[in-house]
Amino acid sequence: MIFSYPVFRYMGMQTSLPLPSWKVVMSQIAFYFVLEDFVFYWGHRILHTKWLYKHVHSVHHEYATPFGLTSEYAHPAEILFLGFATIIGPAITGPHLSTLWLWMVLRVLETVEAHCGYHFPWSLSNFLPLYGGSDFHDYHHRLLYTKSGNYSSTFTYMDRIFGTDKGYRKLKALKDEQTEYGIKVM
């Protein structure tokens, strides 16, 4: 972020008062989430091709059962490659610095939650139907190599559109059915 400051200034980032209205901030944050999810999906899916997985993305998958800190544990090339998805929205819109900071905080909180390994009662996936959360991403880490699916970062719409969440949806339906009949699910 420090090295990208001159680029963001060139792209129109503001640092002075007045602060942007909450409507501007919320619309930019919403745009960033949708755009980031689209770009991240394709970048992440590419990282699951045979060569890139073996030489780059496998570092991130060293943990089959992720925890919060593993969200940022990755090969340097992957950090740059997928980090592009996070900064493309702000680079396009030239936000206020406070909006950029809020976006970065929300993005890190989301990725830590997705990697935390717990589905809390307050998890956003309980309230937002297309939000992936930890269950969605845990499934991705349990399966090795290129066949895992669930490539989205925040929302699940890209996986649904391209059918890369079929295995997860089948497993979830099976778990829901077993829970309904009182069968203990591991």
UniProtKB/TrEMBL annotation:
<dbReference type="InterPro" id="IPR050307">
    <property type="entry name" value="Sterol_Desaturase_Related"/>
</dbReference>
<keyword id="KW-0472">Membrane</keyword>
<dbReference type="Pfam" id="PF04116">
    <property type="entry name" value="FA_hydroxylase"/>
</dbReference>
<dbReference type="GO" id="GO:0016491">
    <property type="term" value="F:oxidoreductase activity"/>
</dbReference>
<dbReference type="GO" id="GO:0005506">
    <property type="term" value="F:iron ion binding"/>
</dbReference>
<dbReference type="InterPro" id="IPR006694">
    <property type="entry name" value="Fatty_acid_hydroxylase"/>
</dbReference>
<keyword id="KW-1133">Transmembrane helix</keyword>
<feature type="domain" description="Fatty acid hydroxylase">
    <location>
        <begin position="30"/>
        <end position="164"/>
    </location>
</feature>
<keyword id="KW-0812">Transmembrane</keyword>
<protein>
    <recommendedName>
        <fullName>Fatty acid hydroxylase domain-containing protein</fullName>
    </recommendedName>
</protein>
<dbReference type="GO" id="GO:0008610">
    <property type="term" value="P:lipid biosynthetic process"/>
</dbReference>
<dbReference type="GO" id="GO:0016020">
    <property type="term" value="C:membrane"/>
</dbReference>
<comment type="similarity">
    <text>Belongs to the sterol desaturase family.</text>
</comment>
